[in-house]
Amino acid sequence: MKERIILLGPPASGKGTQASRMSKAFGIPHVSTGALLRSEASLGTELGREADRWTRGGSLVPDGLVIRVVGDWIAANGPRFLFDGFPRTVGQAKSLDELLRDVSAPLDLVILLELDPVEIRGRIMDRLTCRGCGETYGGSLHGLENGGSCPTCGGKLARRSDDTEDVLAERLRAYCESTLPVVAHYESTNPGILHRVDAAQGSDAIYSVLSALVDWEMQKAE
Ligand code: ADP
Question: Which domain holds residue 50?
Fold first, then answer.
């Protein structure tokens, strides 16, 4: 079974949803750098306050801060992970290559969820996030409203502060400029490791493709 996995894709491509489902099914820890940075910010740590300055405007947090968070996570939890939203720059990808080389634990799989900008915008403008458990929902799809209760934990549903038109435009710019080159990095340094998946399909269809990539035998048994 593959246990060092990266999920790449633009905002709202379903990385978080798929990572959380696969993490439960396969027992591989789900690590979202966005969630780790938001949690540092809500704890009010110096790193969190610094990260928040960038995140608020939709810019990428500087590589040094992100690598510190990821390096600490690997040191504390070991090299088994499903990264969601990391690496987002070629610099981060190279640092991760080094971190993994140091512990002799090579990357197993990179998945790229592809989605066009019109669909991305529609999903982001409809997205509600639980302030309690972090779960996300398509508001109109699930009949939920801003300020309502989370069907999973009962927490309060809200729009994420960076889920706005202006901030989304900046996040998409950062994705095209900084994250798409990460795809080329893996295709050139690790041929065959990267798989492209159409993220416009339904969530269950995407999950079947991803779980087959992670472990065909286990997926058949589900
Ligand atoms: P989304 O995928 O919807 O943009 P995330 O929760 O993954 O949401 O990220 C939210 C924000 O956190 C990003 O816009 C960025 O500012 C910051 N961030 C998350 N991961 C990284 C990373 N690997 N490198 C730099 N910034 C990051």
Answer: 4-115+162-221
159 belongs to the catalytic site: no
Residues with CB under 6 A from ligand 1: 11-12, 32-34, 37, 54-55, 58-61, 66, 85-86, 88, 92, 162, 171
Within 27-164, residue ranges assigned H as helices are: 33-43, 46-55, 63-77, 90-102, 117-126, 139-142
CATH number for the domain harbouring residue 153 = 2.20.28
Walk along the chain (222 residues) and give the pLDDT tens digit of each residue: 899 999 999 999 999 999 999 999 999 999 999 999 988 999 999 999 999 999 999 999 999 999 999 999 999 999 999 999 999 999 999 999 999 999 999 999 999 999 999 999 999 999 999 999 888 999 999 999 999 999 999 999 999 999 999 999 999 999 999 999 999 999 999 999 999 999 999 999 999 999 999 987 655 545
- Assess whether 121 and 110 both reside in one domain: no
Q: In whole angstroms, what is the distance from residue 31 CA to residue 167 CA?
A: 23
